[in-house]
Amino acid sequence: MNQVLPSVGTIQISVKREDLLHPHISGNKFRKLKYNILQAKRQGVRTLLTFGGAYSNHIAATAAAGKEYGFKTIGVIRGEELFDKIVDNPTLSFAKSCGMELIFVSRDVYRQKESKIFNTTLQERFGDFYLVPEGGTNNLAVKGCEEILETNDIDYTHICCAVGTGGTVSGIINSASNNQQVLGFPALKADLSGAIRKFAKQDNWALVTEYHFGGYGKINAGLVTFINKFYTETGVPLDPVYTGKMFFGVYDMIVNHGFPENSRILLIHTGGLQGIAGMNKELAKKKQPLIKIEI
Ligand SMILES: *Cc1c(COP(=O)(O)O)cnc(C)c1O
């Protein structure tokens, strides 16, 4: 569903509310899991195993999807110190309440999660499982994200999307018309163009790298103010890790003439709202202003 937002000068703006796709399997994570779940079913595997950090939208979504579609789920979580802090962490508590088994590993071990030896150890412990990569990105995930754009979206000149691993924006690039411009807004500092080139079948895209706010999961008071103001003015809730940064960037670019006159911009709301509670806990600890969105 596309929601029309107030125009800024000659520039028209709409938001695709992928955050409303499902109450717990957030926006793009639903798209990314869809064909992987079908594949796991086809292979007759009963367990989904995946990886993520303490506040990962992907961990929350996989746990919820496992519950809904009848899979056992295992989440390998970065940070062994978290094992006795599940109750304090809204994401991990939610995943656990969906039945996900949480395995906590040190950052060193986590870095080797793609290695054969780690995989063998997991197989010995849990038996057969369907492995969903960190962030959920693989060919089947990109295929799912190719279903985000709809026929009528051809009327937009620009499509903007937050970027983590690049899977979601790749799906959008593949399904966009070649006279549309797709802009990805990385939420972290790394160079993600190589990751996107691996999946993208067209070259009508660019990355806008000025709005990561210092790195993954890093925010500042200006971003919180923007998210709160945007929610009050439009009713659209944004998350602090991905969509908040992307929306901030798009509006900043509009003010600074980063889009041509008469552009018609579609912003993809990829969800991620479950992360607000965890971020607010961190902000409260530092006595900083909170994100005023109740989900
Ligand atoms: C995971 C996530 C992204 C990033 O998606 P990638 O496919 O990893 O680039 C963007 N927005 C939200 C809300 C997410 O949870």
From TrEMBL:
Xref: InterPro entries: ACCD_DCysDesulf, TrpB-like_PALP, TrpB-like_PALP_sf
Any Pfam family the entry gives: PALP
N6-(pyridoxal phosphate)lysine sites (modified residues): 29
GO molecular function ontology, one term from the record: D-cysteine desulfhydrase activity
Stretches assigned to the Tryptophan synthase beta chain-like PALP domain: 12-271
Residues at the catalytic site: 56 (nucleophile)
Keyword terms of this UniProt record: Pyridoxal phosphate
Requisite cofactors: pyridoxal 5'-phosphate
Family named by the database record: Belongs to the ACC deaminase/D-cysteine desulfhydrase family.
Name of the molecule in the record: 1-aminocyclopropane-1-carboxylate deaminase
